[in-house]
Amino acid sequence: MTAFFSYAVDERVKLVKPDITMASEMYQLICSNQAHLGSFLPIPERVQSVADEVTFILDTMKKEGAGTNRQFFIALDEQLVGAIDIHQIRIPQKSGEVGYWLAAAFTNQGIVTKSLSVLCQLAFEEWDFNKLELIAAVTNKASNQVAQKCDFQLIGRLPDEIFHQDVLKDANLWCLTKADYHKLHVL
């Protein structure tokens, strides 16, 4: 993987800007994690080929150009292991929704928690966001723990919020504002 633009998370982990040259590696990662990802996300259904991943990358680049998305892949020791983004960016409100996923072999190592911490720092200190939201299925314990560890506040439960595998599922709505972030992270 050759990243043209990245942010260091720690000495081994980076947030890298997607590039179509990464499509094959990302597609293979998705293929080898279908069951893991498919339990909460529609990614395996949407990405059925390298061409689908190229389309996804090009689409996120267009959305980034329009100011409605900030997409990154997560790399560990120069190997792609997941993705993280701010999507559905509402420009007037300076807010957006955070999403992330990680390959099964790399879970429980703090990679997503550290990556989300860096993404929040960028959002609030570099990109002038006012608020980040995170929606996680109530049953997705790992995702809810990441939100909590990154100081997001649980706003409440959204009934029938996520439609996945032909079922409506309840979700937790988490929020982190710039003011709360600065109270906790800026000396």
Automatic annotation (TrEMBL):
Family matches, as Pfam families: Acetyltransf_3
Domain of life: Bacteria
Domain N-acetyltransferase: residue ranges: 27-174
InterPro entries, per database record: Acyl_CoA_acyltransferase, GNAT_dom, Ribosomal_N-acetyltransferase
The protein, known as: Ribosomal-protein-serine acetyltransferase
Species of origin: Enterococcus diestrammenae
